[in-house]
Structures are given as C-alpha cells and as structure tokens.
Amino acid sequence: MRVTGRATTLSWIPSESVGNWLRGGFDLGLSHYDDPPRDVVAGTDDVRALRDDDRFRFANVLTGWAEFGDGPTTAGYGEDSDLFMGSTRVRLGVGTATFLGFTLPVLRADPEISQDRVVLRQTVGGRTGVPLPRPVKHPPYVRWHAPIVWTTLRLTLTRDGGRNVELVGASAFPRHWVYDSDGRLALKSGLTLLQDWMDHSFGDRTPWGDQDSPALTVAAESAAERSLSSSIMTGGVAPEVTRLPEGTAVVRQGDVGTDVHLVLDGVLDVRVDGDVVAELGPGAVLGERAVLEGGRRSATVTARTAVRLARVPATALDLDALRSVAQEHRREDPPAAPHA
Predict the structure, then answer these.
(1) Residue 323 burial by Cβ neighbours in a 10 Å radius (0-12, 13-18, 19+)
(2) Over the stretch 62-102, which tens digit does the pLDDT of each residue have?
(3) Domain-ending residue, one of 173, 195, 219
(4) What is the CATH number of the domain that holds 269?
(5) 34 and 136: one domain?
(6) Which end of the chain is more exposed for a tag (fewer CB within 10 A), N or C?
(7) Nearest to 261 by CA among 339, 327, 321
(8) φ, ψ dihedrals at 194, nearest 5°
(9) How many domains is the chain built from?
(10) What are phi and psi of 327, to 5 degrees?
(11) What's the burial of 141, exposed, middle or buried (CB within 10 Å: 0-12/13-18/19+)?
(12) Are residues 194 and 244 in the same domain?
C-alpha cells in the first residue's frame, strides 16, 4: 500500500508582531506587513503562485511517500519538497525596490523507517536581502545581515493511511502557519518573539549550526473565529490592544463580563473549576459565551506565555457572528473547549 503526504508552512509578518524601533520603518512604508494567508493551500503550484504575489515571507513544502507491503517498507521525499523564499519590497522615495531573499541549504533527515511507520523531517530557511544592522548579545556583538528564519516540519506516514503533520522547530519570528496533507490550516506558532529573534538567530544558534528551537504550536481556530477576528480588528470600533505577562488571569470564572477578546499573540490556558480544559492561541476569540449566556464568565483564562490581546465591547459586534463562534465551539468533540 502506497501512502503519500504533504506538510506546508507559510511564514508571514502580522502587524501586531512588530515592535520597538522596527515598527517605525514599517509604518513609514520602508517595509510592509502581511495580510493573513488563506485557510487552504492546494499544493506546490498554489504555494508558488502565492509567493509570486508576495503573500508570505517564506514557505516550507515537505512531500513524501511510503510503500507498505509484506516486505521491507520503503520511503522517500517528493521531488517538490523545497524552500520557497519570498522577496522584500522597500519604498525608496517615490518608488520601490525589491530585495530577493538569501536561501540556506535545505536540510533533510534520512527517512526513519519501521514496518508500520515512516517519519520524514525537513528544515528550510534563510534571511531577507535587506540589511538589518543591530547590536547583538553574542560575538561579534554587531550584525549587519538580518537574522535567520526557518521552520522544521515532520511528516509521519503510517500503514493505515495516517498522515500526521507537526511543526517541531522554528525561528522565534515571524508567525508560522501549518497546513495538513489536505492543504487545510491546522496549526499555528503560538508566540512571536521579535527581540529574541534579532538577538540570537544567527550563526551556531540555527539548524545550520546544529541548534534548532522547539516550536510552540496551537490548533488553528475555527472558521467562524477567523471571520469574527476581521470584524474585531477592522470594524467601526477600534480595539484596545493590551500586552499581559505570563500568569495573568485575563478573565475569571463567575465574573461579569461584556467584552470580547481576540488573541493576537501568545498562548492561554482555559480552566473550568480549576482544571485545564483547553488552550487558546493566535486568532482565538474568547468572551462570547458570557455575552450570550447571562453575562458571567464560564471559565478562567490565564496567560501561559506573555500575550497580546485585542478587546472590544460586545455591542460593537454582530450577535449572529458571536452565535456562530459559540456554536462551532460546542460542536467540538469532548472534552469541549469552553471560552470564557
């Protein structure tokens, strides 16, 4: 039996992920933020078209196959497994200049083959062609080139037809979205750490120096949440954006609440009666149940990492949209993922 699979990451720069002195350059148009990628990526040709349309910074496409039979299992990487590096547009005076990215060699581990399972692993990355001079915390203490970005994907193929996709390593910046073998958005990197990336992601502190960074990932939010998040960020009422440290309780079970929150960055734990029942990451909406069901929070939501949140009053949002989010949450398999 032949099993084939695909794993894809698209890496992009959300506006809320850029801070400190870099934000001024973005806001002046010297570089640009990215719109969120699509929910579905059909295949390699689709990734190539998105790159040519400047829809992401870089992509990791890992394809592979495994042949399971009565004899020894065989496996390999697909010919279209590769890095797709984007370019950077910079506004100069009345025009723009495009800088092609610098690519690093694709790193592929030998397939791990057993009788009933095959594991494929691929790392891709590089850096923008635009210089980023800055002080750093390691020799030589000053860097001219931009830091390295990368993702490491693991694709597991099993005899029963399983095709499991994981993001097992990634640079701390930018945001990484992960798509499964059917091309559907499945996972997101949970946290962007711009300063850490600028301070550390070069030289030996990259996979090309034998040092990867574990990726903190969370399940992608529902389609209804993605639609509602656009209303929160671009609706008639400007959201209040807050940054909260690790350990902060955003809402508490039983409290009265009329605001709705959108997670922009970071990971939060959802607790009901003290037990962790779910985790929330970028793109998740919380607070809709209190608005729809009597005004009291149904759970305590605590920041597992530092987080950035956008908050708007529920009166600024469409009630049908809130109901759609609540309905999708209730359709999840147990244990349910209640939102405060």
Answers:
(1) middle
(2) 999 999 999 999 999 999 999 999 877 666 666 676 777 89
(3) 219
(4) 2.60.120.10
(5) yes
(6) N
(7) 339
(8) -60, -50
(9) 2
(10) -65, -40
(11) exposed
(12) no
Cβ-contact 136, 202 below 8 angstroms: yes
Tokens of 148: 């390295």
If DSSP codes are grouped into helix, strand and coil, which group holds residue 199? Answer: helix
Between CA 69 and CA 315 the distance in angstroms is 60
Contact indicator for 308, 265 with CB cutoff of 8 Å: yes
Domain holding 296, by residue range, is 223-330
135, 272: one domain: no
Residue 340 has pLDDT above 60, yes or no: no
Check residue 330 and give its pLDDT. 53
Residues 243-257: what's their mean pLDDT? 94
Question: Which of 185, 219, 253 marks a domain boundary?
Answer: 219
The answer to whether position 7 is within a domain reads: yes
Among candidate residues 61, 11, 16, 75, the one with its CA nearest the CA of residue 233: 16
With beta carbons less than 8 A apart as the criterion, state whether 29 and 5 touch. no
- Rounded distance, CA 282 to CA 289, Å? 19
Q: Are residues 125 and 60 in the same domain?
A: yes
Owner of token pair 């959802």? 270
User: What CA–CA distance (Å, rounded) separates 260 from 138?
Assistant: 42
Q: What is the pTM (predicted TM-score) of this model?
A: 0.90
- DSSP readout, 226-260? HHHHHHHHHSSSPPEEEEE-TT-EEE-TT-B--EE
Radius of gyration over alpha carbons of the chain, in Å? 21
Distance from C-alpha of 55 to C-alpha of 35, rounded to nearest angstrom: 7
Which amino acid would we find at residue 97?
A: A
pLDDT at res. 157: 98
Query: Which letter does DSSP use for residue 296 in this model?
Result: B
pLDDT per residue as tens digits for the range 157-195: 999 999 999 999 999 999 999 999 999 999 999 999 999
In terms of domains, do 138 and 36 share one? yes
